[in-house]
Amino acid sequence: MNSGYLHLSGPLADELIDAAGLRDIRNKVDRGERLDFADGVRLTECRALAAVGLLAHRVRTARHGRRTYYNINQHVNYTNICKYSCKFCAFAAKEGEPRAYLMTGEDVERKVREKLDQPITEVHMVAGIHPTMGYDYYLDVVRGAKRGRPDIHVKAFTMVEIEHMLAISGKSEAEVFADLREAGLGSCPGGGAEVLVDRVHRAVFRDKMGPDRWLATARKVQQNGFKMNATMLYGHIERPEERIEHLIKLRDLQDECGNFMAFIPLAFWPYHTDLENYGHVTTGHLDLRMIAISRLMLDNFDHIKAYWIMLTPSSAQTALAFGANDIDGTVTEEKITHDAGTTAPEVMSVADLHHLIREAGFVPIRRTTTYQDIEVFEDATAGA
Ligand code: V47
Q1: Which of 226, 336, 338, 368 to mutate to test the pocket of ligand 1 (most atoms within 8 A of CB)?
Q2: Phi/psi of residue 234, nearest 5 degrees
């Protein structure tokens, strides 16, 4: 495979991008210059999706070549009981409802132990905001995971959960982060950001934390030495320019703190939510555009993740040629998107992840949560 394929550069590629009206943006991208809000809006409007994807693929291959990451992970959604009633969520339940559940630290330990036969390196834990469980409960679920598998990386708690802990702990910020570190927290996932725009927040996320509080909590997490991811929940009532506003807010915070690892655009699934009859499930077109625009706007993020659970495996695979360099992991058991009707399976084998990555022309790399290589599968017969 030559570098022409890799970077899709040269006069023909340039001509295609220019014909799409993106010559000035191409020049900025080739010079490594930052794109501004107006550039981002034009990328949302450009009808020639292939040209937007080509530009994003250039950035992706310049950073990562054909390297494409995945990990062997396990999701544990430790409770669905939540004091909030966000319109976009099908997962949350109120106490006493038949579908409500609450895991103890021991339950989490058992869940993690159930999978000891698999080479899992990460447990991803997020949940509802329980109205009455105390601060120690959150430390217990982390400790439970670590007891179950002491060498596992615990990536847990969205900014909503972290802010809640800070509020109920009766302790200082530094003490709470020290407690979490001591319990075994390794990093934080990117959920809960939804759309970092007040209009959207007021309409869909009700009394849950708004954009400023999400960003302020992410700043605290990063200033206290934790790495984290960032997400955007797109494909509901937000406008294209609001997606760009969201990306620029994250880019600004990354300039300031620098501890975001990956950005993950999350495709909204509407079933069993209050937005079920609002519009459409996201399309392949929008999913690929979101990945590409994220890669182009977030010049200070190392990784763009195509989360196959929300994108579906087919779109996630295609996204690898539109700017994404990570496809998430085996996942094992996922509730949030499945409650909202995703058609993706609940688990993906390593062989299937390798197949998706290889068939699209990329090299699978099994990684740690913080993007250290565990194994590079250059040879088509290795490890799959
Ligand atoms: O915060 C909720 C979203 C998030 C729906 O950091 C929905 O590596 C689609 O953040 N349709 C949780 N999405 C998932 C998450 C995540 C996933 C994978 C990897 C990482 C990471 C983080 O799911 C929530 C919310 O934004 N969500 N409801 C729904 N109906």
Answers
A1: 336
A2: -115, 165
Ligand 1 atom showing the smallest separation from residue 191 Cα: 10
Quick: pLDDT tens for 132-171.
999 999 999 999 999 999 999 999 999 999 999 999 999 9
Straight-line distance from the first to the last Cα atom of the chain, in angstroms, rounded to the nearest whole number: 21
pLDDT, tens digit, 9 for 90 and up, residues 218-275: 999 999 999 999 999 999 999 999 999 999 999 999 999 999 999 999 999 999 999 9
3-class DSSP assignment, residue 190: coil
Could you tell me the CATH number of the domain that includes residue 330?
A: 3.20.20.70
Q: For ligand 1, what atom is nearest to the CA of residue 339?
A: 30
> What is the residue range of 177's domain?
64-69+155-268+287-376
Average model confidence (pLDDT) across the chain: 94
Residue 341 domain flag: yes
Closest residue (by CA) to atom 28 of ligand 1? 89
Q: 336 alpha carbon to ligand 1 midpoint, in Å?
A: 7
Please indicate, yes or no, if residue 248 is contained in any of the structural domains.
Answer: yes
Alpha-carbon span 329 to 336, nearest angstrom: 16
The set of protein residues with a Cβ atom below 6 angstroms from ligand 1 is 88-90, 126, 158, 189-192, 194, 229, 231, 233, 264, 266, 268-269, 273, 307, 310, 328, 336-337, 340
- Write down the pTM of the prediction: 0.96
Distance CA(92)–CA(80), nearest Å, equals 5
Q: Give the distance from CA 185 to its chain's centroid.
A: 18
Find, among 300, 301, 316, the residue nearest to 353 by Cα. 316
Total domains in the chain come to 1
Distance between CA atoms of residues 277 and 270, nearest Å? 8
